[in-house]
Amino acid sequence: DWGGKPMQDYLDVTDQFSKEPYVNLEARAAVGASAGGYAAFWMAGHHQKRFAALMAHCGVFDIISKYGSTEELFFPNWEFGGPYWIAKNRVHMEKNSPHNYVQNWDTPILISTGMNDFRVPYTQSLEAFTAARSLGVPAEIIIFPNETHFISRPQEFLIWSDQFIKFLDKYC
Length: 172
Hints:
The protein is built from seven helices and four strands, in the order H-E-H-E-H-H-H-E-H-E-H.
C-alpha cells in the first residue's frame, strides 16, 4: 500500500505538527531518500499545498519502468505480486506510482541520485526531473557519477549538503 495508508500517515502527522505555534506554515518541506524519495515524489502529487519545497534522493518515480531496470526483482515481485504484464499487478503498480499524479505537481523539488544505483536506477530521478521541468515546476537535479544508492564519499556529501541547504533557503 505504498501510496495509501503510509502516505496518509505522513499527511496526518504534517497536519498535526502544523498546529504547533512554532511551525512556519509557509516554510514546511518534505525530504526523503530511498523509500523517502518515493514518498517525496508521491507527496509532490498529493500534498495539497502543505509543503513549500520537496527533496527526493534515489526515489522511485515510475514503478513500472523501475521494474524493467532494477538489478533485483525480489521487492517489486513481493510488494506488487509480480510483473506488470499481469493485469492485477499492473493495476496495483499504477495506483501507487507517483508518475501517474505528476499533473498535480506545483512545488519546487530538488532531486539527487547516484549513477551507480542499480536498485533504483538514476533514470527514475531523470524521469521525475523531466516531468517537473516540463510542467514548469522549479526543479533542480544533482547527479553523482560515482555514487550508488548512498552518498558515501565525504566530498560528495559536502556538495549534496550545500545544495540541499541552498535549496531550502531559497524556497523555505
